[in-house]
Amino acid sequence: MEILNNLVFGFGVAFSLENLAYCFAGVALGTLIGVLPGIGPLVTIAMLFPITFHLPAVPAIIMLAGIFYGAQYGGSTTSILVNLPGETASAVTCIDGYQMARQGRAGPALATAALASFFAGCVGTLLIALAGPTLGEWALRFGAAEYTALMLMALVASAVMTQGDAVKGLAMVVLGLLIGVVGVDVNSGMARYSFGIPELIDGVGFTVVAVGLFAVAEIVVNLESREAREVYTGKVTGLMPTARDLKDAAWPTVRGTAVGACFGVLPGTGPALSSFATYMLEKRIARDPSRFGRGAIEGVAAPEAANNAAAQTAFIPMLTLGIPASATMAVMLAALTLQGIATGPQVMLDKPDLFWGLIASMWIGNFLLVILNLPLVGVWVKLLTVPYRWLFPSIILFCCIGNYSVSNNPFDVYLCALIGVLGYVLAKLECEPAPLLLGYVLGPLLEENLRRALLISRGDPTVFFTRPISLAFMIATVLILVVMVVPAARGKRHGT
Amino acid sequence: MKPDLWNNRDFLAGLLFTVLGGLTVALARDYPIGSTMRMGPGYFPTVLGGILFLFGVYVLLRGVRSGERVKGEWGYRPLALIALSIVLFGFLLDRVGMVPAVVATLFVAAAAGHEFRFKEVLLLAVAMTAFSVAVFSYGLKLPYPLLGGY
User: pTM for the full model?
Assistant: First the structure.
């Protein structure tokens, strides 16, 4: 069994003292920012990755990954206790989780969420170990045309599948691609859209875009309206779910894991959509659907399993193909690239310690998270009482330091303020930022592969339709467009 | 022009895309286009700028037809103060050092909130300054002067 050998090797890497420490730091930080509403894994990873320059690649990526899946655990705590999603992926958990808390069953709700997440996390990690090498081997056959078509599919899917309007989503992708164009053109050495500013010759910094769009803009949105938060102040007692709870939650957990694992791999969907989809599924197949919304344990177990499974399997396309399926994975990809690691099918061969070490660390991390989230839940509940008026100036400060530390140049800080303003305007006009970020990250790769594919085919654009794998991606792209855009154009699809 | 257009969600979004797309194409005229086989640096941005322009026109026209308005008020005050606090950080760090930059950023950012309690912000500033100095200057050894410029 080759995979067993690989896993043993991976655990050997992950169990080194340094990697264990960074794994723990990552999941603890992930839980923290998951619990705190208003700051998510994307912004945290974007702010921290300048600091990870100082670390070797393996512990850096182990920590950043821990932040991402740790946040899925932490988010459910806030959903259940405050009726406010700590993370967007936990929004659905509010519905039944908060009702359980109001009925005095906060403990079992938290335990169910953590155990369902743990199960899903283990299955998700196993899927990466199983699917990664196979997919990677297949992807080794990809040429420039296949990559171009695959990126096109990922971008179109991210644009039309996010909440809100599909046409605006596509426009945001294009805007992101254009921001990615800024800087020196690798083929000709010509500086594009740099307006004579030397700092722009290297392009717009990644942290600048991610932090400006996701942290700065969101803080302003939160500040413009006055919202009172109702915090569940009752004491959490009796963590253990009853035998009946466990029985009720078992199958929804399994189904949630399955749905989440599929959605995680698909571009543009991610944890948020998967938890929503699986909630709808549970409601539809339940014997008594009226229980949902009144504290049904299935409504906690299934979405929490789904978002954690999706958080794990989202690593599959990023690690094996080098194509991120979500904005957060785009941040991870950027972090890896800046560590000098070329993601793609080669990563498993060139950097087996990174690939298998990361997978093993996810298992360890999920285990640590159960401990962090169950016995220590009281600590996180205390954190919920931190008022937002202390939180947001601190987030802004960390954004500034994070940006400054990338290049030690105030220009990045100024540019971040500007992108924050643009991000706020776009948010007010209900244009989703995630497709823009994905476009920005994939822009240079897309242009390079497009140019190479057309150079090889001597300028013949049919190359994308004559190679079978590329053709399949193109057909999928068109299908996604037809299914999602046509109803929107007729005004039948309701944005939420 | 109807005054309503300035609060029309899709009209404004479309206008923004149209202007940015148009500008992109206009600026790309300085870069060689090349051919489909050998694309020059201007090819990719020209095509994308054109697409953005077209999307913009579509969204703009749809906005005029639907007349849907921007939800809520524009938060000019928090937007201006938050942007200012970020700019201040960059401006001050080089000139007077990390400690004043941290304090100034926190105070201006906190002023963007609904409640500004001086004592609380002062405490927060002290705590965050201590944290930043401990983590960034001593822990990560980032080479920023604590007080005073380079």
Answer: 0.86
